[in-house]
Write a structure and sequence with these properties.
This protein is of the alpha/beta class. The chain folds into two domains: about 1-40, no CATH class; about 75-260 and about 310-370 and about 390-410, Spore Coat Polysaccharide Biosynthesis Protein SpsA, Chain A (Alpha-Beta Complex). Helices cover about 30% and strands about 20% of the residues. It has 13 helices and 18 strands. The chain has helices spanning about 1-15, 30-40, 45-55, 80-90, 130-145, 160-165, 215-220, 225-230, 250-260, 295-300, 325-330, 385, 400-410, and strands spanning about 65, 70, 95-100, 150-155, 180-185, 185-190, 190, 205-210, 235-240, 265-270, 280-285, 285-290, 315-320, 335-340, 345, 350-355, 360-365, 380. The strands form five sheets. It has an eight-stranded mixed beta sheet with strand order 2-18-10-13-9-3-4-5. The longest helix has 16 residues, at about 130-145. It starts with a helix and ends with a helix. The relative contact order is 0.16.
């Protein structure tokens, strides 16, 4: 252990992070080992680079943003059946899997536990996980297959998520046969001086690396290798909080296969030009998503000859990828975006500091930043009321909350 400690101390001194061992002696043996494990896994060069990037201005202003072409699912006419038949064939052959990103907690909903375990208030009292599973099983029956389900948890909620599934007998799935769990990556949080924060447990304070970490997590956890062993070629990736998500869509698959693209995404038209959503676009000629904070008012209001918004296709986190594309995108980390957040931490004297204003940097990768890795992708416009009922906010907010999701779900399934 002494040799290990000395090696860790040498690394910390090199990067000016010696304070990470300030409270080492106060920890029990198990937590001492965990702290050393954490430190040894940190890419200190990356942390240093990320801190330096917080001082730089965004380069987005220099990018050339142009509209992206899309298909409207309900205006495909004769092509609809063509695409659908191609997709149906691939699904029947077992080439599709679903991935659900479920690393978050239900804190904003007043729920103590993983967000996927939240009950949105239906008479059935089904959780978000069960509602998603119902959809997968229903589609599987249509094609006489079981759609393999991969669930991305976080270090924070992995244990509770698996226990929840065990309690409910995996909703009819079989662990390690057609349902698999893997953990999202994390990055240390740092203060305004570039120092890594220590949490009140004496361990390094880390935060999930954003939904853009999905590619690297799938590759590093061995999930993409498992998919290939199972004969899976296509993966739908979506969030756990959309109770109307359609993870099995033969039309979307058929379009991707027919057009020879490795990425196909769903969109819904913006409710209004000022809706605070990211929208599909081309950035310097490559597929991308522009955040609402980046788009100018002139761009937001711009319309084409038919009166459609030029930048009106909202990214709803419903994306289909080939397994090969995921492996390519997961080979290297995506660029990270910085968020300035409030974060409690332990100071040098072992005192817990709970700030009342932002004091720390959190780094996240965005899933859509990988879209620039491909020359072309397909965007399919679908109906909001049929496929997008997110549960992001408490009912008091009134938008994208349990009440609105419940209403959309009941209307779609004729439960009223």
């Amino acid at each position: 252990m002494d040799i290990r400690i000395n090696e860790v101390k040498g690394v910390l001194k090199k990067y000016g992070q010696e304070h990470l061992l300030n409270h080492y002696e106060t920890l029990d043996e198990e937590h001492q080992k965990e702290l050393l494990d954490q430190i040894e896994k940190i890419d200190f060069d990356l942390v240093k680079r990320l801190y330096e990037d917080t001082k730089k201005e965004s380069k987005y202003g220099q990018d050339k943003i142009t509209p992206i072409e899309y298909l409207d699912k309900y205006k495909l006419y004769d092509d609809y059946k063509h695409y659908e038949n191609i997709g149906k064939k691939a699904i029947k052959e077992g080439k599709l899997a679903a991935v659900t990103m479920a690393g978050g907690q239900g804190t904003r909903l007043g729920h103590n536990g993983p967000k996927g375990t939240y009950d949105i208030g239906l008479e059935s009292h089904k959780s978000l996980f069960e509602l998603l599973c119902d959809g997968l099983k229903e589609e599987g029956k249509k094609y006489d297959v079981t759609i393999p389900w991969f669930i991305m948890t976080s270090r924070e909620n992995n244990k509770a998520t698996i226990e929840f599934f065990e309690k409910h007998k995996y909703f009819g799935y079989q662990k390690d046969r057609n349902i698999f769990f893997f953990i999202q990556g994390e990055l240390p949080m740092i203060d305004t001086e570039g120092k890594i924060l220590i949490g009140e447990d004496g361990l390094i304070k880390q935060a999930a690396d954003g939904h853009g970490g999905i590619y690297e997590s799938l590759v590093k956890s061995g999930m993409t290798a498992k998919m290939k062993q199972m004969g899976i070629e296509w993966v739908f990736i979506g969030g756990v909080d959309n109770c109307l998500v359609k993870m099995v869509d033969p039309v979307l698959m058929g379009i991707a296969i027919d057009k020879g693209v490795t990425v196909a995404c769903k969109s819904v038209v913006k409710a209004n030009p000022q809706e605070k959503v990211g929208v599909f676009c081309k950035r310097n000629g490559k597929p991308n998503v522009i955040e609402y904070s980046e788009i100018t008012e002139e761009m937001a209001e711009a319309r084409d000859a038919e009166g459609e918004l030029l930048y009106g296709e909202s990214h709803i986190l419903c994306n289909l990828f080939s397994v090969s594309a995921i492996e390519r995108m997961g080979a290297e980390p995506l660029p990270y975006h910085v968020a300035y957040k409030k974060a409690s931490y332990m100071d040098r004297d072992g005192k817990l500091i709970v700030p009342d204003s932002p004091n720390a940097y959190k780094f996240e990768a965005f899933l859509f930043d990988a879209f620039g890795e491909v020359d072309e992708m397909a965007v399919l416009r679908v109906k909001r009321e049929e496929e997008f009922a997110p549960v992001k906010n408490a009912d008091t907010v009134g938008v994208d909350c349990p009440k609105t999701a419940r209403q959309l779900y009941k209307k779609f399934h004729n439960l009223d």
